[in-house]
Write a structure and sequence with these properties.
Structural class: alpha+beta
CATH superfamily: GHMP Kinase, N-terminal domain
Low-confidence stretches: none
Number of strands: 7
Oligomer: single chain
Radius of gyration: 17 Å
CATH topology: Ribosomal Protein S5, domain 2
CATH architecture: 2-Layer Sandwich
Strand order of the largest sheet: 5-4-6-7
CATH class: Alpha Beta
Number of domains: 1
Number of helices: 4
Helix content: 25-40%
């Protein structure tokens, strides 16, 4: 159980299943990402995040192995105390990994908040996000720490963005270590 106030997302992966003809792709699996808010119906914010998540997942899933099928990833927000998009990215990667889908690389999400004085906060809380001058979320691939996706809200200079990216890439190593430990724990139990 997570301490109260932490951001948590539950991920479920369904498929490969038969795709609806309208969504069927002849050369690879069609990937759909659905983001469900804690309460209420998905809105504009969820839709734009679904797109970012889908693009990131599509960049690493070897969908060519299952052409004309559909894979659906459902992310249910349980609690949002800040850094939600990066939490969704991490839940998505763990779900893909857990389902045994072939991936070209693992990825993780890291959120940075740029404070008014220029300091960088990693994994900001909702309150820190409100006070920030800019919020940057990166999806970082394990191979070569490549950036798969970057999303910026607010304003920052190119130099500040590069500093945030460097901090996010360093933080990514810790997340990949967490993935390794979780997978090891999971398979040592069976």
């Amino acid at each position: 159980p997570l301490p109260p106030g932490d951001t948590s997302v539950l991920a479920g992966l369904y498929g490969p299943a038969e795709a609806k003809v309208s969504k069927e792709l002849p050369d690879r699996a069609a990937l759909e990402v659905l983001l469900r808010p804690k309460v209420g119906l998905p809105g504009v914010m969820e839709r734009s995040r679904e797109q970012l998540l889908r693009q990131t997942c599509e960049a690493v899933v070897l969908g060519v192995l299952h052409p004309r099928t559909a894979i659906t990833l459902v992310l249910q927000v349980l609690s949002d105390a800040g850094s939600l998009l990066s939490c969704c990215l991490n839940a998505a990667c763990m779900a893909l990994l857990d389902a045994g889908l072939p991936l070209t690389t693992l990825f993780c999400g890291v959120t940075c908040a740029l404070q008014p004085d220029g300091t960088i906060l990693l994994d900001p809380t909702a309150r820190q996000e409100q006070e920030a001058r800019a919020i940057l979320t990166f999806a970082i691939a394990r191979s070569e720490r490549k950036v798969l996706m970057a999303n910026t809200k607010g304003s920052c200079s190119v130099e500040e963005m590069q500093q945030c990216l460097a901090a996010a890439q360093r933080a990514a190593d810790t997340i990949f270590q967490f993935y390794r430990d979780s997978v090891r724990r999971r398979y040592s139990k069976s």
